[in-house]
């Protein structure tokens, strides 16, 4: 009888991406990022909001899929326009 070998695959990392839209204000985007994304400070959130506006999107967080799914869901619930999660 052959023993089963456990295959340990690392939990995939994902990128959480906010898209530009004509609905959300800079202030709302910044407030959501600061409240939802851990260790997000207002200066970084403003820089990301400007990137979203000028480039059409910005990666606002990278890390383990489970956390990424939570942040993606929370930002979407606040009305931000989200891209699908991308594998890192």
Tell me about this structure.
- With 88 residues, the protein is α+β, with helices and mostly antiparallel strands.
- The chain has one domain: Ribosomal Protein L30, Chain: A (2-Layer Sandwich), CATH 3.30.1390.10.
- The chain contains three helices and four strands, in the order βααβαββ.
- It has helices at residues 26-36, 42-55, 65-77, and strands at 13-19, 57-64, 81-82, 86-87.
- Strands 1, 2, 3 and 4 form a four-stranded antiparallel beta sheet that branches.
- The longest helix is centred in the middle third of the chain and has 14 residues, at 42-55.
- The radius of gyration is 16 Å and the shape is elongated.
- The model has no long low-confidence stretch (mean pLDDT 94).
Helices and strands in order, then pairings?
Blueprint: E1 13-19, H1 26-36, H2 42-55, E2 57-64, H3 65-77, E3 81-82, E4 86-87
Antiparallel strand pairs: 1-2, 1-3, 1-4
Helix pairs in contact: 1-2
Averaged pLDDT: 94
Helix content: 40-55%
What's the assembly state of these chains?
Answer: single chain
Radius of gyration: 16 Å
Keywords:
88 residues; alpha+beta; 4 strands; Ribosomal Protein L30, Chain: A; single chain; 4-stranded antiparallel beta sheet
In short:
Helix content is 43%, strand content 22%.
């Amino acid at each position: 009888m052959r023993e089963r070998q456990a295959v340990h695959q690392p939990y995939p990392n994902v990128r959480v991406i906010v898209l530009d839209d004509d609905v959300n204000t800079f202030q709302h985007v910044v407030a959501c990022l600061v409240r939802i994304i851990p260790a997000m400070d207002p200066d970084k959130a403003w820089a990301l909001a400007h990137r979203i506006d000028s480039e059409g999107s910005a990666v606002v967080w990278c890390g383990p899929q489970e956390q990424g799914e939570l942040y993606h869901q929370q930002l979407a619930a606040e009305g931000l326009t989200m891209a699908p999660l991308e594998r890192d």
